[in-house]
């Protein structure tokens, strides 16, 4: 035999075998579990943070971040389609033959070997017995065929429920149809074009107009799943397809405009429902189409389904008070910007670019100390980046309103240098008017070296008395001025450095306690001097005042680790929302639905239709009728049916 023909035959036998299909289905099942458990098509930064660099690279190489569009997954689908199609091609003729045949060539010897068989001795006339037997089969819904034997006997071969074999055909055909639908939605055209070098994924952040042609998909792309963000009043005719570590731009055969976006909230601030009024602009239309969509109520036009997926900021206008934390100036500067826009702080080499990234009007946070309380809305916050002249950026998130923590109110602003880090928060205590002005006045006094002698003098008079030893008072004041000077350079950490450098190790703890007490006393005077400057009521000695001063000193020390000299206090905003849309073109969806219907029919046929066959061997000379029965499933129902038929036939053939 030709070796090539032998190899081809063996390969086709393997390809159409059950074990090959089951193996592929097992791999497909494992892949589907991974695709369900592992969130797909997330930004790669999220996966790096979650898995680390090593596992991220391994999973990325295996294509686990987009399982259902990976090459190996589509290849498995293709092989399953081919394997199942070959199985149908090879076995369908045999099944149809089995469906049509009555198996009328069975011999008396083979029938007597059946486990379910019986023999009757009819006393009536042969023709009458035969007619009664045929009527019995008709009544039970059996189709039959009579075959004369050489010895004058006759074999009546009957069958019922042979449509069950169509169940096997339907289930296999359904698998092919469903898998074919999966291949249609697997974005195969892009895979082929990418392998041939005609298309590539864009990884840089470019304006839509500057995305090159090799990173754009035409309107003829048969299937895709993309996203579009529309601000109110905006119109776009492209969607973005997230692919691995980049994206593709999908051209649309029409333009989509957002007329209005509406959102309702619960009392806690959580979103309750949201919907968009869309306008479809198409040259083929006489008038634009206006349609309101909401979650689970999409708009489908030209085979493209437009879903309401989410919402985000659409370019909210922002106004800030900018405080320079390291100057004694107590007057903030004004700064305005828009989300997704940029601004600038300072000039020259010290200039910082402000990149406004996100604004959230509602923030639902559980602020209870034990975490068991109810989450509530803590108000708006803004996320932005400050980028220096070298291109290094630090990300900040600042809350507009003071947040209550452990019974006290604080202005919170978090910072982090990389997305892998958690935000580290600067907590600025609010004054009695829930304002930041009290702390900023205190900060200005603590940074103004010209105020130190006055602060030291007030403390010396209170501690040593007005008529105390002048020399001692002078020495005390000088010591306090030096301490305030050190504290103003770096807070508690700078004081600790001085203690470690100048104080013996055994005396450091006592010196630290003394210095902290002196700083607390100085803070009280500095805070009141700031209040007096702003013509506000002075602080009085109380536990609340002690906590306020302690929090203020902690915030002052933390300023040096804030990463920037500027604190952007959100003052006003003009909220502008955008609607997040998901656009899908899925020609395989109808095939999957069709395959599912066929699969249900096939499973129904296999589960609920039982194939049964009856043979009645009539021997007129011996006045004998031999009865045999078989089924593809020998269960309790079959046993009961056989016993019933045997009793009924015994009465007919007696």
From TrEMBL:
Domain named ResB-like: residues: 18-643
Transmembrane spans: 20-38, 71-89, 166-184, 591-609
Single GO BP term: cytochrome complex assembly
Any Pfam family the entry gives: ResB
Domain of life where this protein originates: Bacteria
PANTHER family: CYTOCHROME C BIOGENESIS PROTEIN CCS1, CHLOROPLASTIC
Protein name according to UniProt: Cytochrome C biogenesis protein
